[in-house]
Design a protein that fits this description.
Pfam family, one: LysM
Shape: globular
Mean pLDDT: 80
InterPro entries: Bact_Kbp (IPR052196), LysM (IPR018392), LysM_dom_sf (IPR036779)
Number of strands: 24
Number of domains: 3
Distance between the termini: 30 Å
Structural class: mainly beta
Protein name: LysM peptidoglycan-binding domain-containing protein
Helix content: under 10%
Strand content: 25-35%
Radius of gyration: 25 Å
Keywords: Signal
Oligomer: single chain
């Protein structure tokens, strides 16, 4: 395997888009990597980015753990939240001397056979929409804009459908509905029906309700009196709406392109539910956990999945009970965060995920 020289890498730095640069001559020492952030023994010298690549996938070509990506790049928190800097045709280099990854624009072969960088800037060449995503977006798109979780307080105070013209009970697209509740100056709403109550596996308390998305409605006329109703028109209908269904403002377009990263603080959580009401999950399935923004979790957080060690009798010593070690079996990428609940995509597992399993900060 050809090992790229530090000369070629040095040529790439002017177009490295402000990523940290460490070299033997710079006087700066690259921060040491944790023991879990080792490069793979067979890591390639480079990877040319193509459409369909993800940060997770590229990271997996070089690193034992994709959540080590920010540590290898030396990224700060703001860069983790705004990773629109890797595009198709760019090249990720493995700087073996300093144990870091580097980024350069496309290269071309010069007339003398010397490798040269294409003199282009990111702003002049790329559109932000072309940046590669953190994980495969098609797996989570249906869950990004639709409400998944409604907090207890939000559910109690959500505007609700109270009536329909001509005494109808069920309504569909283009029908009018009458709503009561505080709209908070909103005009466009999603309509949902409360689903199962989600209970914290530790406290056994209800921490939210899984919302069943059934459509969207637009405000047509506000109530004229204190005891009146607001008039809405149904603009989309996934299924028929009925009296008692609730409304929630349509959220802004979510930003999901965060870099996979370990949480800044220790997290110990449990699996609350598998989306869809089943008991078990596998790779590419979606699960919820009993921790959210109040615990320091944000989009892109990567957590380990596992289960508590079983208590078994010690058959060599009067069958006294002993606890086996916890078994960690996979990784979870958080893509949507609420106050006390988060949703994640199961990325890599060697076992099935069960409700009640443990979810924790990756061990460094």
């Amino acid at each position: 395997m050809k090992k790229f020289s530090t000369i070629v890498l040095a040529m790439a730095f002017p177009l490295a888009f402000s990523l940290p640069v460490y070299s033997q001559d710079s006087g700066k020492t690259p921060p040491s990597l944790s023991s879990k952030c080792n490069f793979l023994p067979d890591a390639p010298d480079k990877h040319v980015v193509v459409r369909g690549d993800t940060l997770w996938g590229i990271s997996g070509r070089f690193l034992q753990n994709p959540w080590c990506w920010p540590e290898v790049w030396g990224m700060n928190r703001e860069e983790i939240r705004n990773p629109h800097w890797i595009y198709p045709k760019q090249i990720v280099y493995f700087d073996r001397v300093n144990g870091r990854l580097r980024l350069a624009n496309p290269i071309e072969e010069g007339p003398t056979g010397v490798t040269k960088l294409n003199p282009q800037t990111r702003s002049a060449t790329y559109a932000s929409g072309d940046a590669i995503s953190a994980i495969p977006n098609n797996l989570i798109e249906p869950y990004l804009s639709q409400p998944l979780i409604i907090d207890k307080d939000e559910f109690a105070n959500a505007p609700r459908i109270v009536a329909a013209p001509e005494g109808r009970v069920y309504m569909g697209k283009d029908d009018k509905i009458y709503v009561r509740g505080d709209l908070k100056n909103g005009t466009s709403f999603q309509v949902f029906r409360p689903g199962i109550a989600l209970k914290d596996p530790d406290s056994k308390e209800v921490i939210g309700y899984e919302a069943v998305y059934i459509g969207a409605a637009k405000l047509e006329r506000v109530a004229k009196t204190a005891d009146g109703v607001d008039t809405f028109t149904i603009v989309t209908s996934k299924e028929e709406m009925g009296i008692g269904d609730r409304l929630v403002p349509i959220p802004p377009t979510p930003i999901i392109n965060y870099v996979p990263h370990a949480p800044e603080q220790d997290v110990m959580a449990r699996v609350v539910a598998v989306y869809g009401g089943v008991s078990f999950a596998g790779q590419n399935n979606i699960i919820s956990i009993n921790r959210g923004s109040s615990s320091g979790i944000d989009v892109g957080t990567v957590l380990e999945l596992g289960r508590y060690g079983k208590i078994v009798p010690d058959r060599t010593n009067d069958k006294k009970p002993v606890r086996l070690p916890d078994e960690m079996y996979g990784q979870l990428f958080i893509f949507r965060v609420f106050k006390n609940i988060s949703y994640g995509l199961v990325m890599q597992v060697t076992d099935v995920v069960s409700v009640g399993d443990i979810v924790r900060t990756p061990v460094r």
